[in-house]
Design a protein that fits this description.
Blueprint lengths: L1 H5 L1 H11 L10 E7 L21 H8 L2 E3 L2 E2 L5 H10 L3 H4 L15 H7 L3 E7 L11 E5 L9 E4 L2 E4 L4 H15 L6 E6 L37 H5 L22 H9 L4 H21 L3 H37 L5 E7 L18 H4 L3 E4 L8 E3 L3 E2 L3 H8 L14 H4 L11 E5 L11 E5 L3 E7 L7 E7 L17 H18 L17
Parallel strand pairs: 1-8, 1-9, 2-11, 3-12, 4-5, 4-8
Antiparallel strand pairs: 2-10, 5-6, 6-7, 9-10, 13-14, 14-15, 15-16
Helix pairs in contact: 3-11, 7-11
Bound molecules: 2-deoxy-6-O-sulfo-2-(sulfoamino)-alpha-D-glucopyranose (SGN) and calcium ion (CA).
2-deoxy-6-O-sulfo-2-(sulfoamino)-alpha-D-glucopyranose binds next to loops.
Amino acid sequence: MIHSLKRLPYLLFVAFCFAPRANAESQPNIIWIFSDDHAYQTIGAYGGRFAPLDPSPNIDRLASEGMRFDRSYVCNSICGPARAAILTGKHSHMNGFMDNYSRFDGNQQTFPKLLQDAGYETAVIGKWHLESNPVGFDHWDILPDQGHYYNPDFINSDGKYRVPGYVTEVITDKTLEWLENRDSSKPFMLMMQHKAPHREWSPAPKYLTLYDDVMIPEPYTLFDDYSGRGTAAKNQDMSIAETMTYGKDLKIQEKDERDLLQRRLLRRMNPKQLAAWNAAYQPKNDAFLEANLDGEELVRWKYQRYLKDYLRCTKSVDDSVGAIMDWLEEAGLSDDTIVFYSSDQGFYMGEHGWFDKRFMYEESFRTPLIARWPGKIEPNSVNTDLVQNIDMASTFLELAGAPVPPDIQGVSTLPLLEGEKPDEWRDSLYYHYYEYPGFHSVRRHEGVFDKRYKLMRFYGKDVPNGEEWELYDLKNDPDEMNSVYANPEYAGVVEELKLELVALRDRYGVTEENTQPIQGNRKKR
Ligand code: SGN
Ligand code: CA
């Protein structure tokens, strides 16, 4: 028995090498529409307080014609690591991209390379944020680093160049152009990856005044004092009240600093774009300065400005989804193409007084995931199983009929998309965030979530005694306002989840070393 177990990796490898390759007839096109920091709370199809504003009619259409995943989570709630997890199907410690200071090793196995082997034409257009250039793509045209909203630079295999226009529209146009001119003899896998709605939430000229006359509903946790939670929640630096900047984030400047801000904006905008920007913001900014707000009223004003700009950005992303769906319809490819919509992680829309992400708390741990494939996925269906971004690589490979290498850690969601639930589907998720010290000061933590309970372990530098635990019961406390870790009634749950955490670390190969601060040269970004 021991002997045959030892041979298991070899046998799996042999099985992988000799697994049948798919035939081209049955290989669907795959479109992965991905945005940056798009909170599920702001997608109409997910319901919630923004739904009455109808913020996302096209994404909602995708959901009504396909499947909405209500328990889709990330393994590490930050940009680069989320993207690396999707490309490799592996947790951060296995693919080496643990925080935004990392550099992606493009020599490693990724699903686009495997799809190329399976006969696919592959492309990535838009935000990439992995530092090294893309490998495994027949076509790539990416934003350097975070990219810019106005007149963005792009890099492709010929070098860097600047494109006039608004980034979301430019990415959409480039995508449509690629779709028109691709090698149509092959199935394709296309990743259209938007920069929006990333900070500093700069809207397109045509949406600068959208929602001007609307009051955006507030979350009841806007003035959370973190009394029921741990030190990490108290000591973060991501609050609307304190962290958000007047100039860049809130687009406002005292009279004597206006020239400075205008010069900064002109570095990216042309005079016409700047004129439209000023016409939209100046009157509202003057009224704000006149009102001289402070205390809670000031936070409320900042919340309105933040949310409106954010929703204006997501409106352009939603238009982009509509444009791709229209193109597929016109090209007669809707039935042959599975379209996914997702984001690199979730985001705080003022819940707990925050913006940004990183924490394993629900708003940033969870991310939207919607898939449409006419005739294959039941319209208007909702899945509530635990899925994670590491599952996408296996999903794409299985869709393509390509073998899934045994070292990929995620599991294909194809059975779920087809409306089945495999008996052995997972009942808990592993999470690990590493970027500390770093922007927004969120302490390093790992944790386990089983649909009802979430156990989190903060550790290392600036955590009292080097380790601090939190436990939330999401059935009784969906907004995670009170950690029940120290409550004796939950002692049994704590014990069980600690065992589960150990089992998950073991399953995913998390070592002691992985929970030490990251060493080596890290470029400041
Ligand atoms: C920038 C932002 C941060 C954000 C990180 C990571 N600051 O540094 O607010 O958390 O990106 O975002 S900004 O002032 O430059 O906008 S991520 O989505 O790329 O991980
Ligand atoms: Ca992001």
